[in-house]
Amino acid sequence: MERYLLVALGGALGSVLRYGLGAWVQGALGPGFPYSTLMVNALGSFFIGLSLRLSLEGVLSGEARLFLAVGVLGGFTTFSSFSYETLALLQGGEAGKAFLYALGSLLLGLLLVLAGYRLGGVLG
Fold first, then answer.
1. Phi, psi for residue 60 in degrees, rounded to 5
2. How far apart are CA 5 and CA 2, in angstroms?
3. Is 124 annotated to bind ligand?
4. How confident is the chain (124 residues) per 10-residue block, as mean pLDDT?
5. DSSP 42-69
6. 78 assigned to a ligand binding site
C-alpha cells in the first residue's frame, strides 16, 4: 500500500508542476505552437533518465524511484497531450509544424533522456 501512496503523491506533484510550468511557458511564448508540451516532455525525458540511472547506481532507493520516475514524472510528462496537439496541427492543415513538433519532441526526448542517464552515471 505504501508504494501506491508514493506513486499517487508523486503523480499529484508532477501534475501540478506540469500545469504550472506549462502555463508559464505557453504564456511566455504564445499560443501558435505547443511549446509547453514540448518543454515538459523534454524535461521529463531528462529527469527520468537521471532518476533511473541514479536508481541503477544505488543512489536512489526503490521507493525514491517509484516516487520520482513513476509518480512525479508520470504525472509531469504529457505524451497524450503531445499526440493530440500533433493531430490538431495536422487537422489544421499545418503538416510542417506537426512534423517539426513530432520530430523535435522525439529527438529532444531521446537526447535529454541520454543526458540525464549519463549525468546519473557521473553522480552515482
1. -105, 140
2. 5
3. no
4. 96 97 95 92 92 92 93 90 90 97 95 95 91
5. HHHHHHHHHHHHHHHTTSS-HHHHIIII
6. no
